[in-house]
Structures are given as C-alpha cells and as structure tokens.
Specification:
The strands form three sheets. Strands 3-5-2-6-7 form a five-stranded parallel sheet, with helices on both faces. Strands 8-9-10 form a three-stranded antiparallel sheet, with no helix packed on it. A two-stranded antiparallel ribbon has the order 1-4. The longest helix is centred in the N-terminal third of the chain and has 37 residues. It has a domain of 151 residues: Rossmann fold, CATH 3.40.50.300. Helices cover 48% and strands 15% of the residues. It is α/β, with parallel strands linked by helices and 261 residues long. The protein contains eleven helices and ten strands.
Length: 261
C-alpha cells in the first residue's frame, strides 16, 4: 500500500504538537493548583514566638532582622494583648498577626511584657509550647535593675533553653549574625541569616538588613542604640556598684555573664 509521506508527516507533526499542548496545559494547571494551595495555606495564626524585653533593649532590631528569614512571619508593631487588651478575644489577637504558611513561625513582640507578671500565665494558657525570647542590655544605660527578679517569674513557667532564650541586645547591634544564629537554633529554624543579608553600613556605622530584592534597610532605632547615653562618671560608678549583685544573680539564673561591669 502506498503511503502519502507528506500526509503522514503532517499528521505526525500535528500529533506531536497536540501532545505538547496537552503537556503545557497540564503544567499550567499544576502551577495554578500550587499557587492556590499556597494562598489557601496562608492564614493568620497565633504566635509561636513572642519577643519581650524593656524599652530600648533591641526588640525592634531583633524582629526586623528575623523578618529576613523566609520561614518566619513577623507581626507589625506591638499588640499589648496580654496586658492592655486581654478583655478581647483570642480571635482579635489572631487578627493582629500576619498571614503565614503552615511551615512558618509566626513571631510577635511586646517589649514591656517582661515586667508584667500577669501576662505569663495568660501566654501559657494560649499555648504552653510558645517560645519566649528576652532581649536585655546593660541596666546602667536603660535604667532597669530587676532583671533577676523578673526572670525568676518567667522561668517558673517557661524553662530556659527549651522555652525561653535570652538575647544580648548590645551584641545584637555590634555582632548581629552570631546572636541571630542562636535564635535560629532556639526556634528550630534552618540557618539562613548570614553576611549575604546583613551588612555593615560604614557611613551610618550600623548593621543593616538586605531584603530579598536587594534593598538595604537600616534601622534608625538600631543606629540610635549604638551610642550609650552620657552619664557622669561618678554617677556611673555608683550605679555599677548598686547593680553588681543584681547582675551577678541574673548571670547565675541564665547561665551567662554579659560583662556589665
């Protein structure tokens, strides 16, 4: 039987093109399903990590740096839910959180929780497995003397190491990557933050984060935190004498000497 080669080739080409078209449509459908799944998975979740501290200790710098991590979703501002708005529902608190995926850690901060003992049991009631990060700095410069007293209340509910981690606020400004690596480990996150996304700005003399789009973002608060307020030497000497036993007690509790001498 004679075969028309041109007709045969035409049908073969048409068949191949048709197969490619089906494959392309299947790929597009698969991409659409993945995008839809991501959109569906993104929802507002209660925080799995809460940052606490005192004023000017570095909580804003910490949450800003952690915002670099793709496995972290950070809440804007401070909700003050567990102290000022506890009469509102958990759903209201959830509404203050960012949209996140199931594999992300939702992170919130309210610095003054540290000194509000009533919030400790309230946070535990929300989630006994929540992780607490405390940021501290030399009390001589931020006028706080009761780290040891406060931390004892927190560690009764949230054990150090397993559920509570202490960040050196001064080191967070002078050597952020080393402190952030410890935070990643504490939260069980893959190591992502590095010199590729945190760089030193020599003009501002402060470390800045580099966004995923390559934009350098420097924190004004972090920059302000580099210089200590001016204190009369005689007054500073008296403050250091006063704080010394309190600091030593704090070092013993957390198992780390911060060198506030």
């Amino acid at each position: 039987m004679m075969v028309d080669i041109a007709t045969y080739d035409g049908k073969l080409v048409e068949s191949i093109l048709g197969q490619r078209s089906v494959q392309e449509r299947a790929m597009e459908h698969s991409r659409a399903k993945r995008m839809l799944a991501k959109q569906i998975a993104r929802q507002r979740r209660l925080p799995q990590c809460i940052i606490i501290g005192v004023m000017k200790c570095g909580t804003s710098a910490l949450i800003s740096f952690m915002n670099l991590h793709p496995d972290v979703a950070t809440a804007p501002g401070e909700s003050n839910y567990f102290n000022n708005y506890y009469n509102r529902t958990l759903e209201w608190y959830r509404s203050q959180m960012p949209l996140s995926r199931a594999n992300q850690t939702t992170m919130s901060k309210t610095a003054n929780y540290f000194e509000k003992y009533e919030v400790i049991d309230r946070i535990y009631a929300m989630d006994p497995n929540v992780k607490i990060i405390l940021v501290v700095r030399d009390p001589v410069y931020i006028y706080r003397s009761s780290y040891a007293l406060h931390i004892e209340h927190w560690t009764r509910v949230f054990p150090l190491g397993a559920h509570l981690h202490v960040v050196d606020g001064a080191k967070l400004i002078s050597d952020p990557i080393s402190e952030l690596r410890k935070v990643e480990a504490f939260l069980g996150l893959r190591h992502y933050i590095s010199g590729n996304n945190i760089v030193f700005d020599h003009e501002r003399k402060v470390y800045c984060r580099v966004s995923r789009s390559g934009v350098k973002l420097c924190l004004d608060k972090a920059a302000k935190g580099v210089k200590h307020p001016t204190i009369d030497p005689a007054a500073e000497a008296k403050l250091r004498t006063y704080f010394k036993p309190l600091n030593q007690r704090f070092y013993q509790i957390v198992g780390h000497d911060f060198g506030w001498t």
